[in-house]
Amino acid sequence: MAKNNSLLEILGTSLKLGLTSFGGPVAHLGYFKNEYIDKRKWLDDKTYADIIAICQFLPGPASSQVGIAIGMLRGGFLGGVISWFGFTIPSVAVLILFALFYQSFALGDATWIASLKVVAVAVVAHAVLGLGKKLTPDRPRIAIAIAAALIMLLFPSAIVQISIIIAAAILGFFMFSKQVETKVQPFSVSITKKQGVISLSVLAILLVGLPILSQTISNSYLSIFDTFFRVGSIVFGGGHVVLPLLEQEVVPNGLLTSGEFLAGYGMAQAVPGPLFTFASYLGTMISGITGGIIATAAMFLPSFLLIVGALPFLNELRKRSSFQGILTGVNASVVGILLAAFYDPVFTSSIANGGHFGLAVILFALLHFWKTPAWLIVIIGVVLGEAVAYLFA
């Protein structure tokens, strides 16, 4: 019964996040911290930061992977599946419906979408401040964070982001290996190392085998699965990076027109949850609801295989001072990367006038000082956003 209650708790919490987590992957980490760490105490800040650092190394949707990992730590493999389902299914449902009726929607300039972007500004600011206090408490780590932010702002790309993380890992090894805590709070994970190796082996086999099968067997569903599994396995840098890769896969091949692709992209920006659910829209446009479900499963399956492959080894590695030093450097760089992302694209794409900035300040104050729940911040932001739009019309 306790296990069932735990799984129900995971489902309820992740579903609430899936309905309220607007603003993209950086904002999602803020919502997760508020719900899983600050409110429910499922993890401590150090473990949460280490999981984020590991997921930054892995291809795929980082925020979804963090959510899957937390679900697995809380309720085993099934907990990870349930955590992903709750966080992802609201966005999947909306985008599949939108694919069926997209010509009837004209939401691009809606006031509430602009308000949701302002909400994301407050949430990300709160997350960066909170993580910064924990992960950059001294001058060397502050320097790493600032350097990471400056480099990302000057040279924004997924390759640069990975390069920053690798450089920070090397610096962390030499600078912090002898300074880190000798005792780290361990976490319990029901996945064995053997299962982890099997999971990574399955990933490799599918990456090699699916393209061969797709070329050999003429089947539209198999082709969809191959395309989206491949993209989900190789993309670094989050949802915005996956969009040009998907565009190259579906538009030049005539599966969708450029207009249809952009319509789905606009809607994907307006719904909560992971941006990778854009695959749900594309799959439905290509081959109906079944195609949407297959595309969604293929897009996220690599995330599960990678997390199952990484988690069994994380606990043991965290005990080693050298690995702790590496994570210390990486965590500091992540703060800088999040800070750069807070400015661009979160701030630059959300704050259009003084009213928006004032609304963001109010929402941040409610979240940070008055400890207002994130889901209520979303509602307040949308309501006040209407007033701001009226005043600045």
TrEMBL record:
It comes from the Bacteria. It is found in: Cell membrane. The keyword Membrane applies. Its main location: membrane. The keyword Transmembrane helix applies. Pfam families: Chromate_transp (PF02417). It is a multi-pass membrane protein. The chain crosses the membrane at residues 81-105, 111-131, 143-176, 196-215, 227-246, 281-314, 326-343, 349-367, 374-392. GO terms for molecular function: chromate transmembrane transporter activity. Keywords: Cell membrane, Membrane, Transmembrane, Transmembrane helix. PANTHER family: CHROMATE ION TRANSPORTER (EUROFUNG). Belongs to the chromate ion transporter (CHR) (TC 2.A.51) family. This is ChrA protein.
